Every structure is written in C-alpha cells, then in structure tokens.
C-alpha cells in the first residue's frame, strides 16, 4: 500500500485492512461483505470521508450487468474525480494525526 503507484485500496473493510490503509495514507474503495465490515464502511465513507462505497447495485437499484460499469465509475472517480481528490486530502490528514498519536 505504501508504493507511490497505489491510488486507492479496494477493501472488504475489515478492521486490519482499514488500519493499514489509514497508516499508509491510501484512500479506500469499500466493498463490505458481512458483519462489522458494513459498520466499518459507514465510518470510512460517512464519518471520516476517506473512502467511496462500491455497491453491487446500480444507481437504479439493479444488479448484475451494471456492476462492471459501477466499478469503472468508482475507480475513475477515485483516481481522477473531485471526490477522489477530497478523499485523498482527508486520508492524509487522518494518517498524519495517527502518526502524531
């Protein structure tokens, strides 16, 4: 995660993965599967604002063939979009705060 070519981390939002991403200063693309991962995802996306949620449903609520387009939308948004820029700034602030602690 600490390599300069890493723009984002696709994570299931397990606690260890979340901490590793924060310590490395890498924004997260969140794809939670079960249990506490959904709660961690909510904190990552809505509270700390250091990630983007990757839903397996399209904006219209459908599943299946629209998922690849959603993956592309989220990844491109994280790498080139305004939300990605704000997310990177927030994760760097959080990383620096953790280092000071």
Automatic annotation (TrEMBL):
Keyword Plastid: no
GO terms, molecular function: UDP-glycosyltransferase activity
UniProt cross-references to InterPro entries, sorted A to Z: UDP_glucos_trans
Coiled-coil annotated spans: none
Keyword annotations: Transferase
Entries under PANTHER family matching the protein: UDP-GLYCOSYLTRANSFERASE 72B1, UDP-GLYCOSYLTRANSFERASE 76B1-LIKE
Protein name: Uncharacterized protein
Taxonomic path: Eukaryota, Viridiplantae, Streptophyta, Embryophyta, Tracheophyta
